[in-house]
Amino acid sequence: MDAKPLSIGKILSERQRFIVPIYQRTYAWNQRELEPLVDQIEAKADELLKTNKVAFSHYMGALLFIPDSDPVFGRIQAFNVVDGQQRLTTFHLCFAALRDVAKSYEFDGIARQISDLIVHSDDTPMQDRATERYKLEPTTYDRILFRHIIDLDRPALRKKYPDHFYKNGNIKGAAPGPLWAYWYFWEQADDYIREGVWLTDSTKYDRAALQRRLLALSTVLFEHFRLIVITLAADDDAQVIFETLNSGGKPLAAMDLVRNDVFHRANRRGEDQAALLEEHWSEFEQPFWKQEQTQGRIKKPRIDFFLGHVLAAERGAVISLGELFSEYKAFVVASAFHSTADELRALTKYAPAYRQLAEPSSTGELSKLSRRLNTFDLSTAYPLVLVIAQSDADDETKARLYDLIGSYVIRRAICYLTPKNYNNLFVEVAAYLKAHGVNEDAFFTVMESKKAADTSRFPTDAEFASAIRNRPQYGWIPQHRLKLILEELEFAMRDRFNIEGTLQDGLTIEHIMPQNWSMHWPLASGASAPVDLVTGVDEAMRSEIETRQAVIQTLPNLTLLTPPANSSASNLNFESKRTRLHDSLLKTNIAIASEASWDENAIARRADSLAAAAIALWPSPRHS
């Protein structure tokens, strides 16, 4: 048996064929497996375009095969695929799609190079050209379709398999796996290479830029995606080895690899492994760290996410969750720890804060921030929070910084500002605070440098107040996040004479003036609007309707009620709602109930009150 790590390009460049035995399952990968793979390919292509290199190769698991027979002169050597056929088939489909994308833009040289990876060229010696020209022979069920994908272009495939496409040309979700995967790869590759390459007149693309992006995709897939290739000898028991590789045990998590690496190095140094385990690593053996968690589309044990956040905090850079072990090894080399104990302390010092972030207690500033971040699904802020939490800043400074992080998130949500750059922003702020001190002045300085960028700036008080007054929030901010905002405003507006403690469970968002208001809520002029808000409306009434519609979904027209009260209140007039609002015992609802009427003017008054409370509750950074 021979095992070695090889690039996909190396594997497919050889004069050899791979045969998937009949007992193997048919191609089964779908969007769940393919979408993360595409993300990884594109991320590495971006890295190559940006830096002209790729830091780490991506390992896709094992490819286990055994020679089909002894080599024969003039015949291409064939291997039976014992394990890894899903991966191998996927890479063939991906290269087939890239080849056809290259053809569609008349990059014929690139197309020929890619084609040589999936079929043998015509000048290759073969005994049976009809079979041997294909470098992969899938299972019997998939074989004909696979060969059509290799041999036909997209229009011909649509014509050949019309039942698997809609009339508009889009592929159906129930299409056979190989066809769906090929189509998905083609569309994703085409979208990627066309991104940002259009010239100023928006009708032509920059051909050189298009070629660079196509070459970047092809290069990273060829050179930087690898498999552990295990070639069995004729006397090896392929089934025993297959069962060993695919036994019932759980696959190794990244942190399992880290643990093995750490203790192997400790052993080579002659360090006391038992003491290291007891004094440092035992924390990570708790069930808390082994629970499966999901972030975005990625599902891993919690300890792997912890490792990613710690590395981001320590290195001040975005970490690839798909290559955690490689990222960790690079971190260890760069850190040059004096001992394994020092290395482990660099991890364990973050554990208490991370526990608070993952499972917040009922009190404390860090727990309050955790609830905000978890509600907004923003674990991307964790590296920054960890840097603050383990620093030697005093508790008051930490609390203030936690508040500013939460304020930043909530202000930007209310101001309609994108969260897409948060992973980069939070890591950058973490690195700046580590370098210049964990304090509000440093936070202010780094945020001040972002004030011109909509992707990262901290909204001003004036912008925040204007968004509260004028921007529709219901339907824009998801309801569970909007509920958190209203709950925090309720507590902020209470004083010592109001009820203390938590709000009751199950409160839901209620429109004070309902969304369907025409029946019971006359306009400011006293006129009643038609149910459809259109029939028989003159210009004056249209203006009144537009003014009202503009405030219906804004924060000042929203509050919290229990579900029965919400259902009962529904579209009733304000007099009918007043008692239910008052009986809720919420400070904000009692203030609403005290209004003589609820109209655009009352909403404007509440907007001013909420804006003042919100600016104090979710502050902006200040320079001392």
Provide a quick synopsis of the model:
With 624 residues, this protein is of the alpha/beta class. The chain has helices at residues 8-13, 31-51, 85-104, 108-118, 129-132, 140-151, 154-160, 177-194, 207-223, 238-245, 254-269, 273-279, 287-290, 302-315, 324-335, 340-348, 351-358, 365-375, 382-389, 395-414, 422-436, 440-448, 461-470, 479-492, 539-552, 563-569, 574-583, 587-593, 600-617; strands spanning 2-7, 16-19, 58-67, 77-83, 136-137, 225-231, 292-295, 298-301, 508-511, 558-561.
Word description of this protein:
The protein has 624 residues and is α/β, with parallel strands linked by helices. It contains 29 helices and ten strands. The chain has helices at 8-13, 31-51, 85-104, 108-118, 129-132, 140-151, 154-160, 177-194, 207-223, 238-245, 254-269, 273-279, 287-290, 302-315, 324-335, 340-348, 351-358, 365-375, 382-389, 395-414, 422-436, 440-448, 461-470, 479-492, 539-552, 563-569, 574-583, 587-593, 600-617; strands at 2-7, 16-19, 58-67, 77-83, 136-137, 225-231, 292-295, 298-301, 508-511, 558-561. The strands form three sheets. A six-stranded mixed β-sheet has the order 1-6-3-4-2-5, sandwiched between helices. Strands 7-8 form a two-stranded antiparallel ribbon. Helix 3 (85-104) runs antiparallel to helix 9, helix 19 runs parallel beside helix 21 (422-436) and helix 27 runs antiparallel to helix 28.
